[in-house]
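[job 0412] stage=complex_fold ligand=acetyl coenzyme *A status=START
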Amino acid sequence: MAQNSLSIKDNRTGKEYEVLLEDNHLRASDLEKIKLSETDEGLVAYDPGLTNTAVCKSTITFIDGEKGILRYRGYPIEELAEKKSYLEVAYLLIHGELPSETQRKEWTHHITIHTLLHENLKVFMDGFRYDAHPMGILVGTLGALSTFYPDAKNVRDEASRRLQIYRLIAKIPTIAAFAYRHSQGRSFIDPSNDLTYAENFLSMVFRPSTSSRYEADPDLAKALDLLFVLHADHEQNCSTNAMRSVGSSLADPYSCAAAASAALYGPLHGGANEAVVRMLEEIGKVDRIPDIIRDVKAGKRRLMGFGHRVYHNYDPRARIIKKMAQRVFEITGKNPLLDIALELERIALSDDYFISRHLYPNVDFYSGLIYQSMGFPVDMFPVLFAIPRMSGWLAQWQENVSDAEQRIVRPKQVYLGKAERHL
Ligand code: ACO
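[job 0412] stage=complex_fold status=DONE, emitting structure tokens
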């Protein structure tokens, strides 16, 4: 019997099975051989929410949720946040290594020259209702991009994949900014090739008009770039799973990215930063916090920005963001909701309900306050999350379509409905 294996005895039949282990996992398909009878389809693993199912082998992002560790391609998030720009980190996620100086220049050039949107796409975006949620506009527009680039269907072709990766990383800030301008009833501002990735985005969002000048505060642009680094990837989360899952049918990356953004839109995922600020606004005063905590403990509501499927410790990104928030508020003035957030965190972290469930602030708890202080309306927050997550989605999509072991995603179910019956 192989030492690296599991012996399973099926007490229903008395039969024994040996299942091989590799890197601390077993192949779920090996469970199929555990049958009650020859016609039985075999044992399945029941795992709603895929909480204990690995859907891929990946070399991109490592998380140790117990210790609060996050690494991209082996580099600790703290080091990348301190020393690297978002575009360098995006390169790292896509290529596996940080760029040399020549590679960095080439990469930046390719991203910069693809920032413009086709004029028809602008008309398409203009067709959304005046009060459309910018995240809805983003989801729809990413899907529409697929019709502008039919060459993207060649997902098995490496050169084609590279081109779509440039386009998507380059165009998502432009789409995001246009979605914002549309909701404000203001004309679109085209990208400026002489600006950095974050400065260009801020210019497309906040420049009053094409004829007026706008210069982003360099420290705020840097802070936004740092937020982009922190949000770039997070291994197999809900939206990344959507990206991989849709990609498994060999759909083009624009359609996959639309699906991933739709998954990110939900309040339990990328919509949480929006929900945090709405919750803090609703609380309004520090002395209302005990009532809120009571409701949370009674199961009547959740504390948004708290808890994480993977982290059972302080989210390392939240620690960096909390520190950065102080720097941003020195420039923009303190966000009045900060005191409520700090007090909420203090009370929650000393309360047994939160301690026993390992509920700590996650990345979204403070990011919304920063975005708000920078002048972004709340409904732009999930869009600000989607911009950098595009590089993570694309790295994961590329890994998935290049992985010979991957097949179209087709999960099983446990059928509990009626047995055959007739009219
Ligand atoms: N507030 C209060 N209680 C909570 C919270 C919360 N935010 N999160 C989890 N709990 C409690 C649950 O009620 C449950 O308690 P119980 O055991 O008494 O029933 C226990 O903690 C475990 O919760 P689950 O829902 O099983 O945890 P899960 O891993 O499925 O959910 C999630 C993770 C969705 C992030 C959850 O913590 C949550 O809803 N948080 C608020 C939303 C949020 O901030 N989302 C952003 C996540 S980060 C990101 O996506 C970028």
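The mean pLDDT is 95.
[job 0412] exit 0
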